[in-house]
């Protein structure tokens, strides 16, 4: 057994079930419903890029379910296809369930037919039957089972309908063994060559399907030869030359051979579809198409996207204020209790300072400022995802990313970065090309995460929208949205620069399927966004912020030459800070805010007041008075916003980059690229403002 798949094979008491299917068929929902795990359900192509695993029981038997990446075929033209194909070939699963979409069964049958060529232990799950019923699509499941030669079960996984029947079918296939799947008949030259090859492949019997392997050799699939050598350690010398011989004898090119095979599969899928599916309403997708004409149009697509983004940010900004204040009051009440406890126990003052004023107060700031915006933003983001809008965002931005020699899916990873850049970096896994994945990773920090929104919102509110009266919230939202547009533009420009220098290459093409618009499940949205995103990101931030609080307290309280280390550091940084329109204390605050951007403003306040611990002022008016008294102008506020947008990633994000790239080199590049860009842009803005005497 290959080590790569040893973890996927359960104990002797467990049977292994592979879960395969096209993107947007509800495959992850089936997985979640069967196993009860918090596997996130995404509504865009390519979300699952690793083999998630879970367990379920049925009638006393234990089963291990392995969720394979969503893929359109098994021709191994992408990372997802290769991972899914290799598991199906070499994973030794007891059964495979192929999840299909009842509203788009014809295109899903292509993958079903390909999988049935690899394994004869197959169950077909026709999911989204409720959607099919709503669109008046009638599917004859019994006839479909007869045509395919395997069990077929209809389900509505979001409501749980049909899942018990699916478990029963899987148990029967896993326990009783083989089904009798339909085999596609190919053109005569292909079939003759396959018949000649199969006897030469006897030594692979029991390890991989000989007919399927022969077909891959006929079409010249090089990656399967590498996989055979990798997983089975076979000597492939006797197989070399099969594909060139076939092409030479049949006077065809490599592409033509694959086209003949694919055409046969597509033709068979169409034939089966015509026999088993009846459409009462031929225009069942008419409403979706009408909506798409607006949401993906050249005229309205981008403005609508910006408007929706503005609404999400406005709701996040307005909704986070009150819960943030409640959490802050709670945490500082706990701090009062901790202070009394430390005094009662007689701990030395420096221990109290380190643990309470340093570590605890920093953690309190991070959680009270970070949790409410995430708890609002992530459900809103997940709502757009569940509705099916995010693939439309990728479609609208695909042209721009191609111009930047980057991948269209980078639009999706960029959107995820608005919630948290660490989550955005993880989302870069959906990009197949290693080059384009690195570009997306390095540039993800150009969109502000929820940790940077408090700085942007504060600056926009007190310096840009200060005189707007009742419309202050709207003006502040527009100002933040303008900064975000700048971030998107910088993402494209830097992506273009990287693609022409250290990451040269041309953009790869990808298939982006527009999923149907679906009714969101609010309960599931809240649960997934809180558990899978908010608490996950918050946990990482807390781990990084705790030691940072101790370091900040030490710098503020250790003094020599009549000044704290914090003050000495600010004086040292003053010349560099002046060049970019800031001051030494602000730049020092950004450096000390490396663990979590939420603490930048409190560090600035602490520095100006020389208090020795993190402080908050009672109102934005008091904060504005303090900043103006220390030399702040509109230029300072603008450059703080720009530097907030473009500076080094936080500790959590860099940690994630290191784990994802497994490379110190790319981690350093991810640190330097946004930082140098921020210094350059802020320096130019400051120089122009001084040149034209605008300050």
The geometry reads as elongated
Low-confidence stretches: 1-11, 38-49
**Helix vs. strand class:** alpha/beta
Largest sheet: 6 strands, mixed
β content, as a range?
A: 5-15%
Q: Give the strand line-up of the largest sheet.
A: 2-3-1-4-5-7
What gap, in angstroms, lies between the N and C termini?
A: 71 Å
Individual helix count: 29
Number of strands: 10
What does this structure look like?
It is a single chain. The chain is α/β, with parallel strands linked by helices and 695 residues long. Helix content is 63%, strand content 7%. The chain contains 29 helices and 10 strands. The strands form 3 sheets. A 6-stranded mixed β-sheet has the order 2-3-1-4-5-7, sandwiched between helices. The chain has a two-stranded antiparallel ribbon with strand order 6-8. Helix 4 crosses helix 12, helix 14 (301-345) crosses helix 21 (472-499) and helix 23 crosses helix 24. The longest helix has 45 residues, at 301-345. It is elongated and about 90 Å long. Residues 1-11 and 38-49 have low confidence and may be disordered.
């Amino acid at each position: 057994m290959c080590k790569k798949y040893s973890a996927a094979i359960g104990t002797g008491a467990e049977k292994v079930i592979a879960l395969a299917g096209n993107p947007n068929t509800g495959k992850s929902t089936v997985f979640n419903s069967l196993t009860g795990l918090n596997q996130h359900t995404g509504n865009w192509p390519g979300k699952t890029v690793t083999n998630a695993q879970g367990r379920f029981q049925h009638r006393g038997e234990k089963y291990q379910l392995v969720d394979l990446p969503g893929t359109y075929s098994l021709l191994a033209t992408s990372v997802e296809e290769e991972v899914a194909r290799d598991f199906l070939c070499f994973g030794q699963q007891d059964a495979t369930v192929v999840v299909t979409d009842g509203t788009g069964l014809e295109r899903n049958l292509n993958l079903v037919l390909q999988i049935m060529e690899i394994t004869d232990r197959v169950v077909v799950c026709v999911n989204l039957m409720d959607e099919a019923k709503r669109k008046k699509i009638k599917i004859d499941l019994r006839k479909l089972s007869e045509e395919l030669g395997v069990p077929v079960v209809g389900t509505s996984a979001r409501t749980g309908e049909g899942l018990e029947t699916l478990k029963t079918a899987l148990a029967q296939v896993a326990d009783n063994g083989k089904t009798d799947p339909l085999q596609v008949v190919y053109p005569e030259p292909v079939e003759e060559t396959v018949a000649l090859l199969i006897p030469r492949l006897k030594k692979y019997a029991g390890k991989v399907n000989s007919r399927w392997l022969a077909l891959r050799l006929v079409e010249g699939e090089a990656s399967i030869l590498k996989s055979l050598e990798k997983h089975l350690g076979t000597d492939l010398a006797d197989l070399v030359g099969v594909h060139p011989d076939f092409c030479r004898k049949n006077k065809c090119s490599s592409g033509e051979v694959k086209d003949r095979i694919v055409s046969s599969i597509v033709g068979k899928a169409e034939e089966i579809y015509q026999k088993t599916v009846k459409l009462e309403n031929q225009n069942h997708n008419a409403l979706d198409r009408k909506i798409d004409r607006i949401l993906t149009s050249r005229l309205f697509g981008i403005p609508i996207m910006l408007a929706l983004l503005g609404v999400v940010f406005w709701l996040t900004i307005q909704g986070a204020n009150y819960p943030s204040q409640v959490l802050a009051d709670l945490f500082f009440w706990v701090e009062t209790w901790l202070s009394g406890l430390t005094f009662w126990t007689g701990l030395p003052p420096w221990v109290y300072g380190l643990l309470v004023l340093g570590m605890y107060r920093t953690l309190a700031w991070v959680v009270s400022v970070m949790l409410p915006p995430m708890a609002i933003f992530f459900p809103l983001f997940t709502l757009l995802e569940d509705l099916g809008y995010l693939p439309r965002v990728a479609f609208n931005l695909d042209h721009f990313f191609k111009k930047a020699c980057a991948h269209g899916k980078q639009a999706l990873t960029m959107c995820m970065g608005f919630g948290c850049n660490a989550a955005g970096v993880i989302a870069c896994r959906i990009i197949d090309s290693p080059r384009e994945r690195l570009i997306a990773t390095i540039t993800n920090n150009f969109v502000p995460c929820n940790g940077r929104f408090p700085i942007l919102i504060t600056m926009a509110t007190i310096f840009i929208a200060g005189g707007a009266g009742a419309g202050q919230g709207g003006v502040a939202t527009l100002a933040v949205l303008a900064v975000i547009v700048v971030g998107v533009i910088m993402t494209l420009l830097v992506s273009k620069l990287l693609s022409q220098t250290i990451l040269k290459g041309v953009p790869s093409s990808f298939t982006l399927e527009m999923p149907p618009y679906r009714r969101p499940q609010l309960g599931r949205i809240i649960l997934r966004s809180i558990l899978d995103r908010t608490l996950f990101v918050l946990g990482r931030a807390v781990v990084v912020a705790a030691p940072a609080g101790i370091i900040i307290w030490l710098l503020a309280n250790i003094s020599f030459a009549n000044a704290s280390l914090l003050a000495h550091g600010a004086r040292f940084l003053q010349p560099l800070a002046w060049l970019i329109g800031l001051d030494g204390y602000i730049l020092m605050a950004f450096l000390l805010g490396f663990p979590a951007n939420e603490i930048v403003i409190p560090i600035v306040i602490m520095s100006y007041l020389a208090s020795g611990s993190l402080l908050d002022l009672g109102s934005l008016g008091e904060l504005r008075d303090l900043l103006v008294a220390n030399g702040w102008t509109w230029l300072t506020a603008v450059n703080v916003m720009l530097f907030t947008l473009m500076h080094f990633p936080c500790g959590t994000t860099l940690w994630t980059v290191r784990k994802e790239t497994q490379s110190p080199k790319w981690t350093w590049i991810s640190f330097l690229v946004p930082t140098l860009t921020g210094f350059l842009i802020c320096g130019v803005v400051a120089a122009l403002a001084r040149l034209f005497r605008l300050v």
